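Duplicate of #3305? Posting structure anyway:
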């Protein structure tokens, strides 16, 4: 008959964005991996869905969302790091204990000589002292075990400089 029919189809899915804090963690929706967050414009059927994160660096996390057809939704999963014990000690070559701030992956977590907790997947530990400077070492933590890191600092004379230069002797975590 030469008539034009216009028909608008409603979407039969919800458009979902998923964020994790911190980002970069694999997310499963209803038991199926959807990739690493942040995820954008994920098409999910209307109804309830279970979002899960099962990563060795973080406590297991599960969150339910309920989405509606044709709607947009955002889910934000705040993850809690698995931690391990850390003890950081610093001594001079004269066996004097050094009190300094302890930083793990750029976050200050306490001071030398006190029991500390650090994220199990942390990569570096730093010792920061206002006069002696900054010292860094690789870090490898394990569950149910306290890692001890010892910084042995020795006085050394730097060429062309007056005063004392403090040097972290190599050896990494002990």
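Output from current build:
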């Amino acid at each position: 008959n030469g008539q034009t029919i216009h028909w608008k189809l409603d979407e039969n899915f919800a458009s979902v964005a998923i964020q994790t804090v911190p980002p970069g963690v694999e997310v499963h929706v209803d038991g199926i991996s959807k990739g690493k967050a942040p995820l954008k414009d994920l098409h999910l059927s209307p109804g309830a869905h279970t979002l899960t994160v099962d990563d060795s660096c973080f406590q297991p996390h599960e969150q339910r969302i309920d989405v509606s057809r044709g709607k947009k939704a955002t889910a934000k999963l705040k993850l809690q790091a698995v931690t391990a014990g850390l003890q950081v000690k610093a001594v001079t070559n004269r066996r004097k204990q050094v009190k300094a701030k302890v930083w793990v992956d750029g976050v200050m977590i306490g001071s030398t000589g006190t029991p500390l907790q650090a994220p199990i997947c942390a990569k570096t530990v730093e010792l920061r002292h206002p006069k002696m400077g900054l010292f860094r070492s690789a870090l490898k933590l394990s569950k149910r075990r306290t890692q001890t890191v010892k910084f042995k600092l020795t006085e050394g004379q730097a060429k062309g400089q007056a005063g004392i230069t403090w040097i972290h002797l190599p050896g990494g975590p002990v």
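Confirmed duplicate; merging threads. The CA atoms of residues 46 and 68 lie 5 Å apart. The mean pLDDT is 86.
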